[in-house]
Amino acid sequence: MSNQTLPTILIVTEWHAPLGEVEVFTLGLIKELVTSYQFVLAVRLHNPGELPVLPSENCILHHFTSSRDLKRLINRYEPSLVHFQQSTQLAIKISHVGRYVRTPLLMTLHYAPSLPLTPSSPFKPHSWKYLRSLNKFVPLIATTPIVHDAATSSGVMMSGEIISVGVDTSRYQHGMTREARRALDLPEDIPLILFSGHPSDPQLAALVFQLSALAATKDICLITVGHPSESSLAPTLSQLKTRGRYHNLPELDRSDERHPFIYQAVDLAVLPSEQPGNSLPILEAMASGLRIIAPNQVEEALTELTNSPRLHLALGAANRELALKLDIAHTAAAYHGIYRDLLTEGL
Q1: Are 279 and 253 in contact (CB under 8 A)?
Q2: 192 exposed, middle or buried (CB, 10 Å; 0-12, 13-18, 19+)?
Q3: Measured between alpha carbons, how far is 274 from 328 in angstroms, rounded to an integer?
Q4: Cβ(190)–Cβ(219) under 8 Å?
Q5: DSSP labels for 23-50?
Q6: CA dist., res. 317 & res. 217, Å (int)
Q7: Pick from 36, 252, 270, 277: most CB atoms within 10 A?
Q8: Where do the domains of the chain lie, and which CATH numbers do they carry?
Q9: Please, where are the H alpha helices in the chain?
Q10: pLDDT at 34
């Protein structure tokens, strides 16, 4: 690491491919703050051979598999701050390393719906007791409001904040519809609706049957990413595909230059009502100037798309403006302030 005058931040995280919320957050944070800190990135790989491409030379990458590996890294680099940012299960299994270090600690928890934040949680009693004891000395940051609401009502988060995972809004632009559709080999002359939830989401089934009925009288095409796992949908999807009313796109890694085309190619994005509020695909859709709707709003939105195009565009533009406030630069600035405060307290 070239600049020994900068504080060293050890980030501990998991790594999947294709890039998801945690991975995008990690790379974005390092890219934005690498002039202010030296980073040591410790990753636990879920896809062997899929190592991250670091955004700067001023960052060292290590692969770890155990708490013992982390202790060795901490002893080797003597970081000014250790930032655990990962899903809950890794937090529970690994972050107890923090009990053995004297440097300031910070934890960002992703995937909030699975957090053991109430005494009635199926993860109790071990996980519940563990997070309560851990939170006595580790500040918590959540990436969705669900964590904050549950934690505040139960009194678990003695100190904590909500910070969006952030999205690089410069990558997601609106107004390239035809070019994007050609790049992805999608129909160019009919409205396209993107289902932005996970392919296994039960709400996909209701949407498929609803669109199947609408497709009988309207020109409309459903777009999904990744193969739906619900086998009962196969006959209906096959019929829609035969009629040119359904296309399934391969899941593209977020490092792929074609990834933004998914949003630029479509007219509407359907948000499953049970999906967390700061979901990365939703932020990407908003940054692309898309109107985002619930599954039961499809027919109404299609009517407005046809009869009130100005309203449709205005709603999409409003989403874009909101997404700009959740840009990764703003996220990184918030973390920069937290890093600075913790480092000052640790002096």
Answers
A1: no
A2: buried
A3: 24
A4: yes
A5: HHHHHHHHHHHTTT-EEEEEEEESSTT-
A6: 29
A7: 270
A8: 8-166+327-345 (3.40.50.2000), 170-325 (3.40.50.2000)
A9: 21-33, 67-77, 88-94, 126-134, 145-154, 177-183, 203-214, 234-242, 261-264, 280-287, 298-307, 309-325, 328-345
A10: 93
Q: Highest-confidence range of 93-97, 145-149, 336-340, by mean pLDDT?
A: 336-340
Residue 8 identity (one-letter amino acid): T
At 98, which amino acid appears? G
Question: What pairing do the DSSP bridges indicate for beta strands 160-162 and 291-293?
Answer: unpaired
* CA gap 284, 322 in Å, rounded: 11
Lowest model confidence (mean pLDDT) among 37-41, 165-169, 227-231: 227-231
What are 292's two structure tokens? 């985002």
Query: How do the residues of the chain divide into helix, strand and coil, expressed in percent and rounded to 5?
Result: 45, 15, 40
Model confidence, pTM: 0.79
Amino acid at 99: R
205 compared with 186, residue with greater pLDDT: 186
Q: What's the count of helices (H) and strands (E) in the chain, helices before strands?
A: 13, 12
Among all chains, which residue has been given the structure tokens 């990744």? 226
User: Edge-to-edge, what's the strand order for the sheet holding 192-195?
Assistant: 246-249, 221-225, 192-195, 268-270, 291-293
Q: What's the CA angle centered on 325, arms 20 and 26, to 5 degrees?
A: 30
Report the candidate in 211, 287, 280 with the shortest Cα–Cα distance to residue 246: 211
Q: Tell me the C-alpha distance between 294 and 270, whole Å.
A: 6
Question: Is residue 309 reached through a cis peptide bond, with omega within 30 degrees of 0 on the bond before it?
Answer: no
Total count of residues recorded for the chain:
347
Contact 83, 11 (CB under 8 A): yes
Rounded Cα gap, residues 212 and 293, in angstroms = 18
How many Å apart are CA 299 and CA 230, to the nearest integer?
24
pLDDT grade for 224, boundaries at 50, 70 and 90:
confident
